[in-house]
Each structure stands twice: as C-alpha cells, then as structure tokens.
Design a protein that fits this description.
globular; 4 helices; Pnp Oxidase, Chain A; single chain
Length: 149
Amino acid sequence: MALEGEYEPSPSEWVRDQVDEYESSGGTRANTLRDTGTPIVIFTTRGHRSGKIRKTPVMRVEHDGEYALVASKGGAPDNPQWYYNLVAYPDDVVLQDGPEPFDVEVRQISGDEYAQWWERAAAAFPPYAEYKTKTSREIPVFVASRKSN
C-alpha cells in the first residue's frame, strides 16, 4: 500500500503542515483547504526526477469512487511539479480520503470525459473556473481509480 523510498516533504510550509496533520489524524483534521471548509484529499507519488516520495493535498473531487486530480496551480502559466510525477509514474500513486490510504492508478483525460470532470471539479471548487480564464494552457485533469487487489 505505501510507496517505498525516502519521503521528501514539500518545500511549502503550509503544505508540509497540512499533510502531517491530515495523516496523523487519519483525515479527521486538516481535511479542508486552510480555513475555506472545502474538502481535500492527499495523494502520494514518486518524484519524476528525484525518485523520492512526495505528498500533495488537492481539492476533493470524487464521483462514483473515482477522483479528479486537477493540475491548476491557481491558473499559473505552467503545470505544478506534481503533474510531471503523475505523468512519469501513473501506476505508483496512493490516495487518502479519510482514515486509510489506498492504491490508485491515474490517467490524464481529454475530450468529453475532460469536460464532464471539469464540470464536477468546478462545482466542488468554484475557483477552478476563474483559474481557467487566467491561463492559456488547458489545465490537466487526471482521474484516479482504485486498484483492485
């Protein structure tokens, strides 16, 4: 279930603190984006350059047991670093939504499926719609599906 290797916490203090608090409480604390009340999940992946374990909180966009991981970076012109981790290691991902993490595989989506998941993402976290207007890139979306044992 857990990825093997050295864990390298985020260089961002608030992300490090959120991940630590979320994991240590089994998802009962630090389970929203700061003070917004908007739910988050944590995903774990392997760094595409370092090979180290990385943990990232993202907005909780769930539908029928699958999750969207939206690489918005607040509408910045470039993708977040974790985007490249998912591209490099789509089968080496763990997601935590509540007390127990579970293995997932991710795939980047496009077309009608992208439109459907984007609508869900913007409903779960309305700022995504604004982020889309701030950048010329298509904001990547991955769908994370639980691996069968």
